[in-house]
Amino acid sequence: MRLSVLPLTLAALMITAPASGQETGGARNPIAATAAGERDALTLERALAYALERNPGLSAARNEAAASSGLLTQAGVLPNPSIDVSVDDTQKATRTTTAMLNVPVETGGKRAARIKAAGLSRDIAEQDVADSRASLRAAVIAAFFDVAVAQESVRVTRGSVDIASDALRLAERRVAAGKAPPLEGSKAQVALASARIEAREAQAALLGARRKLALLWGEAEPAFASVGGNLDTLPERASLDELRAALAASPKLAGGKLAVDLGRAQLEVEKSKRYPDITLSAGVARDNEAGRNKAQLGVSIPLPLFDRNQGNVYAATMQSYKAQDLYRELQASLTAELLQAVTRFDLAVGAARDYRSAVLPGAAQAYDAARKGFEAGKFGFLEVLDAQRTLSDGNIAYLTVLASVYQASADIDRILGR
Questions:
Q1: Cβ neighbours, 10 Å, residue 16
Q2: pTM score
Q3: How many whole angstroms separate alpha carbon 326 and alpha carbon 263?
Q4: How confident is the model at residue 17 (pLDDT cuts 50, 70, 90)?
Q5: Of all helices (H) and strands (E), which one includes residue 254?
Q6: What is the DSSP string of 303-344?
Q7: Which of 120, 155, 174, 389 is the most buried (most CB within 10 A)?
Q8: From CA 374, how far away is CA 297, in angstroms rounded?
């Protein structure tokens, strides 16, 4: 996705451009104002850096991955030996004191199976970190361009207010000159009031979009005033074959594959528990009555007559099958979600190009012609209002399509985990 600071979008240029031969009534130059305001605007790179550094969800995923490393360490630890001390008889002269060192010996490959399962759990946690980072990045990009589009919406609605004000002045002059009925002046006042309402709504939507972006790095109130992004350069997507290949290597699918492997590893852990552990014992017994020490050796072997861990082995087998089923479901759902995002992206990009090439220029020309015709007495004010509304609706619809473009692009990145 290519990003740069651009003075103003095509839509804003169209909506704020004054009609031929007319002044804007002292309105500031939008291009100069935007260029001045975006020098200190929040860039996408800074927004991503803030989120990756401060987002609580990503930090939690990192801590979970660190915890899984501790579990891996614990899985490789050998069982502790124990010391048993026993005393026969309470009389010192005939007492026998025995001290034994017991060393448990794991059989059936239990330790190796535990280490393998714990290692896979750690790998899954690391994939979760990568997926959380990708999801956060996509959320930041989508929220960033939501703010950029909301900024343009504010500019568009303010331009609509300027246009409605100019139309009201024209209507009042024609009414005062007796060239138009007073009803046209009333219609112009209604149109101006509606434009002002839309401008206030756009301002409120901008504040909401700024708060949504700031929340991604833990700020309830945004510290930035604006963002700087190029809305005229539409993002591009790779071919479907390239996207499918990227999906196969995505953190989500990689984590799903690891979950299948983990299911098999946990099954091996449960199978290894079918073999009883041996306890080797060695020690010495002090026989006070005989006045000598006697060596003690022993071995303890549980007999797996009833408990052969058969229930846990069956449960782990079913859990392994479940992991395979979930992976197939994940693969299908991510593929479908990717194709849907690609479809939304292509439709939105096509619509944006149509708005730029045909809808917006045509609406601007129609409004300019209706305005000049009204001033010359060729058209009624109803035609001016209709052309004004068409121009305003076209610009708002264009910005809505732009938001869809960047949202779909961010969704593709989120699904692919890049």
A1: 22
A2: 0.74
A3: 11
A4: very low
A5: helix 251-272
A6: --SS--SHHHHHHHHHHHHHHHHHHHHHHHHHHHHHHHHHHH
A7: 155
A8: 113
